[in-house]
Amino acid sequence: MPSPLNPTVAAVTDRIRQRSAASRRAYLDLIETARRDGRHRDALSCGNLAHGFAACGGSDKQALKAGGWANIGIVTAFNDMLSAHQPFEKYPPIIKKALNEAGAVGQVAGGVPAMCDGVTQGQPGMELSLFSRDVIAMSTAVALSHNMFDAALCLGVCDKIVPGQLMGALRFGHLPTIFIPAGPMRSGLPNPEKARIRQLFAEGKVGRDVLLEAESKSYHSPGTCTFYGTANSNQMLMEIMGLHIPGAAFINPDDPVRLALTRAAAKRATEIIDGKDIYAPIGEIIDERAIVNAIIGLHATGGSTNHTIHLIAIARAAGIIIDWTDFDELAGVTPLLCRVYPNGPADVNHFHAAGGLGFIIRELLDAGILHEDVKTVMGPGLRRYASQPFLDGEELVWKPVTEASADTEIVRPYAEPFAADGGLKVLDGPIGRAVIKISAVKPEHRRVTAPAVVFDDQNDFMEAFKSGALEKDFVAVLRFQGPRANGMPELHKLTPALGALQDRGFKVALVTDGRMSGASGKVPAAIHVSPEAALGGPIGRVQDGDIVTLDAINGSLELAAADLDTRPQALAPGGTETGMGRELFAGFRALAGPAEAGALSIPGLCEDAPAPSETVTA
Questions:
Q1: Between helices 58-66 and 46-53, what is the axis angle to 10°?
Q2: Domains in the chain, start-ordered, CATH in brackets?
Q3: Does the CA dihedral 426-428-432-438 come out positive or negative?
Q4: What is the reported pTM?
C-alpha cells in the first residue's frame, strides 16, 4: 500500500506553487491563447500552407491539403559525430511510416545543434557549451514556429540538447510533445578502469597511446556514453516527468524493443492531440509536481549537477520558479538508491539490468516521495512508469518491474538505501552559494580545511600540478569560470589530477564558479559558486593562503578572512572573447544570469534569482 505524500515534498511543492503563482498563470494564459487562436494549419493562408507541404510525398500532401490528418513535427538533433545522436539518422522514416499507419503525417520541422562536451572538454569550444542550450531552445522554437503541427516529437539525448529542446517546446506548451531517445551504447571498458588509466596518464605513468586505447574501448559505438552523466540524467528526467513512452530511457539502440518504442511514441503522439479524448499538452504535463518529481529523481539516482542549472531554466520556461534551497530540502528526504558510475563501478546498462528506472520510480511512489497524481503523455498518473517494455512476438507490452533488485550493489529498495539523503547539497558562506555532489565522495573527504591556491585558468592549475607545486594540502579556487565570464565550461580536465593528489594522501578540494557536470567524482568540489567572480562575487577576492573550509556535512563554505569585504576585486584574465566562434556569443555572455537562476541568456526568462527560500520542516 503506497504511503501518503511526504510532508516535506508537499510543503516544497506548495511553496514553489505560491512563489510561481503570477508567472505560471501568465504562462498558462499564453498557451491557452495559442490553442484558441486557431487549429494551426487552419490559420495559415493558402500560400503559407502550400509552402509547408510542397516537398511532401503525394499521399502526405493530399492529406495535409484535405486537412483531415494530424501533422506531427519532428525536431531532431541528429548528427553523426555524437555517438548518442547518430542513430537518429534513421528515425524520421520510421516515425513517418508509423504516423501514416495511424492516419497522420510527419514532417522534420527542423534540426538543432548538438555539440559533444566529451570532445570539447578542456578546449576553447567548451565555452560555447552552456550557451548551446539556449541556442537549441531557440532553434526548437524556430522549427515549431511554422504553425503546421498538432504535436511534436523531439529527438535528443545529450547534455544541453534535451534541456534546450524542452525549453523550446514549452514555449509551444499547447502542443503535445513526446521525447524519443536512442539509448546507451553497450558496455565497453569498465568505467573504474577508464578512470584509473586517466589518472595514470595525468601522473605521467602511461603514454597517450595507452590512454587513447582505453578511451576508444570506453566510447566504442553508436549510443549514449554509459556513465551516469548529464546525458543519461536527461533520460531519467524525461521518464520521471512523463515525457517518454514508459521504459524508453535505457534500451540499447540495436535492441528490437528500441524500434518498437520509437514507433509507439509516434502513434501515441496522434492520440493525445487537441480534439482527442486525452489531450495532453506539454505545458500542462510540466507543472510544479513534475518539476519536484524531477528534482527527487535526480537525488535518488545521484544524477548530474548540471541539472541544478538546467532544471531551473526548464521550470522558468514553464513559468515556474525554483531555487537551490528547493533542491537541498528535497535531498534531505530522498534516499540515494543507485550506485552508477561515477558513484559506483556499474554503468547504465548494469543499472537497467538490475531493475532500472522503473524500479526506482516504483520504490519512490510507494514511499510517498513522488507525486503520483501527475499528467503524462500516457495519461493521468505516474504509476505506469513503474514498468518495463518487452516484445511479445511483434507486440510491445509492459510488465511490472521486478519486486527485488537483481543486484543490490547497483540498485536498492527505499528501505535499504546507499545513503539516507540525496547526493546533491547546497553550500553557503562568505564565498557565496554553491552546489556539491557528494554521492561519490567518501565520508572522510567531505570536510576539507586547507589554504587556498587561486587560479583564473584551468591550464594554470594543470601547469602547477605538473611542476609539483601542488604536492600539499590545499583548496583550489578556480574563478572567472561562470556564465558571464566565459560561458561556464566544465572543468573535468582537473579531475584526474585532483584525484591523484587525493590518492597520495593530501587533503584537496575545488571551489569554482564553473561546472563539473554529471561526472563529478571522488574529490569534493563546490561548483557553480554564485555570484560569480565576473559579477563581483566574493570568490574574486579570495587570495592565496586564505584558509578555506568546504564542509559538505553541514553545508557550509567558509573563509577565514576578516577583511574579505574590503579587498579589491580581481580583474578577469581576458583572452576568451574571440576565437573558436566565441565572438559570436558575446551577447549571450552579456545577458547570462546567475547559475541559481538557470544561467539563462534569453531575455524574458533570465531575471535574477529570487532570495533563498525559507526552510521547510516536515
A1: 160
A2: 7-37+69-186+221-400 (no CATH), 424-575 (3.50.30.80)
A3: negative
A4: 0.94
